[in-house]
């Protein structure tokens, strides 16, 4: 009798699991059942906003349902991220944000009210772009070696511009100081635009910023690119060496952009969104758009993306510790 009861219990558990799986698959096949919102946690007009809108247009065709962008700016992207963390986990509200989301808790005194690794479902990396190390053509600096030599010989005449405290460019610059053995002071700005204006005007010596923002200045000769971060050269700047090639190792900082949903999205739905994202990122049309922005399409989704973000978090934490950056 007891054996029969145990067998019935196992059959019931198995049947329940099968029904749950079938229900999840059926829901995924019907997904989306209403418009999907991509929350961009920054103001309109920036890189995250532009990327979100380009992706939304393509995903609308892929899903057969309207995908719209909703800007929820504030607190360096934390307001929008917090909103998505508390949304219904059915896949209809997603977050698209920049890699600063993993830097914020390291450099901000105000604590985040969410944990990126616990309160979200990783969907996939959307794109990445290296940072470009640029100097003024009037500086007489031709390469990274020249820059380091001048920084050590005339420390009072060299400075770095930073387009935001805790930004990728900020941590890259601080790490450059550590790797190159320099102590170049930082000038912190509230955005890249004023920093780029000042370097063109001669008030700054150098800045590291994404290809998208620096390329217009480099292509017109107003700034000189002497290196790029990351493991490989930029396709838009093929003659510019990586910092590793220039003699400063372990400078694989890149700006990347990823997509998440709230924690608890059914696995079948998450896979459906991942599949749609992968198809769009692999399309010639979207790749062409990314090329013009100096970006490379992402290739990791789901758990692989989650693992990548975790490793990036550890890398940035080490960079903050090495540079002794105090939270503000």
UniProtKB/TrEMBL annotation:
SUPFAM superfamilies, sorted:
Periplasmic binding protein-like II
Q: Which InterPro entries match?
A: BUG, Bug_dom1
Coiled-coil positions:
none
Q: Does the keyword Secreted apply?
A: no
Instruction: Look up the signal peptide feature and give its range.
Output: 1-28
Does this UniProt record's set of keywords contain Phosphoprotein?
no
For this UniProt record, give its keywords in alphabetical order, as a comma-separated list.
Receptor, Signal
**Similarity section:** Belongs to the UPF0065 (bug) family.
PANTHER family associated with the record? BLR1237 PROTEIN, TRICARBOXYLATE-BINDING PROTEIN
* Name of the protein this chain belongs to: Tripartite-type tricarboxylate transporter receptor subunit TctC
